[in-house]
Amino acid sequence: SPSWSVASRPSALASNEVIRRTNLGWQFKSSLTNGLLYDSRDNVYNTTQGLSMDLSVETVGQILGGQDHYNQYTAKFAYYYWPFDYTFGGLFRSNALKRWRVVIEARVSGTFTHETAPYNGSQNKDINPYIEPGDKLYIGGYETLRGYDYARDSNFPQPWWQLGGANHMLLGGLELRLPIEPSVLWWSFFLDAGSMFVNLGELTGDYKDYVDDYDDNVRAQFEGSSALDVYLADRINPVNQKPNFYGSRSGWNDPRRAVLSQRNLALDRTLFSWGFGIRIQIPVLPLRLFLAQKLHYADGKLKPIAGDDKFQFVFGIGDFRY
Questions:
Q1: 145 burial class (0-12, 13-18, 19+ CB within 10 angstroms)?
Q2: pLDDT tens across 254-275, in order?
Q3: Domain for residue 175, yes or no?
Q4: Domain count of the chain?
Q5: How far is CA 306 from the centre of its chain?
């Protein structure tokens, strides 16, 4: 599928990356997506049982032409199961209540993006990167990690947004749905999880400089400070004066901890949320209204994030599309 884009009229405060993108003018992107889909759900709108699997590969640029060049691999799985209905195993003898099924949904997805190269090899990636920020992945908001701000939540590690988005994203979740009226209205309780990773070797410009200079900038920040001042600045949140839930700020924001590796693929590098709300399943306008609380993993369990533990209102239209 071909597409064109252009960035124009940056403000005086725009970053070097924004100005660089503007100077490129019109950009052409060409992509081809192939995939496999398996779907055994009993109802795509109010699913009570079944399995959905979606595997896809998107090829962008390369022999297809254009200024963007990468491959993106996506795998999505969702499993639905109903342990009982409102007859409670025959305790109440009513055929009507058999429609009122309590449903458990388990879902997991992974998206992986890798830079490739143009077919003719004539594009300078330092001037015109093969993967633009608009091609990258971002987390947060209703469709991925409920309760967190989209892309730039204050609890996210800086590499998740400071480097123009991520290359890889892993998401998962559980949801318990209780019918109020099974064709229209459901109670919902959920647990979301998500993490992102960056290919540092593919970065250019200011993003590459940020990674290369990270250790020097951290040392310069604490230069001349006492050991106590360094400890407090690195581990205490200056806004609420509480210890950071992730411990060391410099360690949490270290770009090397954002690389997809066995060490970094860990629960303490994953953010979570839980909450509850209602699902209004109107065919032309499916609405979702939730309250969500941010969580993190520590000491073998999930805990609210200190200083940011209030429930956030989340509004959405339609279902998850990750």
A1: buried
A2: 999 999 999 999 999 999 999 9
A3: yes
A4: 1
A5: 22
Read off the pLDDT of residues 28-44 as tens digits, 9 standing for 90 and up. 889 999 999 999 999 98
pLDDT in the model for residue 14: 65
The pairing of strands 101-115 and 168-181 is antiparallel
- Contact between 80 and 103 under an 8 Å Cβ cutoff? The reply is yes
Output the average pLDDT for the chain: 91
Residue 67 is assigned to a structural domain of this protein: yes
**Residue 151, phi-psi category: left (phi > 0), alpha (psi -120 to 50), beta (remainder):** left
Q: What is the CATH number of the domain that holds 63?
A: 2.40.160
Do the domain assignments include residue 132? yes
Position 231 in a domain: no
Structure token digits, residue 284: 């032309």
Identify which of 131, 135, 133, 130 has the alpha carbon closest to the alpha carbon of residue 119.
Answer: 130
Structural domain of 98? 2-200+257-317
**Alpha carbon distance 160, 48 (integer Å):** 35
pLDDT digits over 127-136, tens only? 889 998 889 9
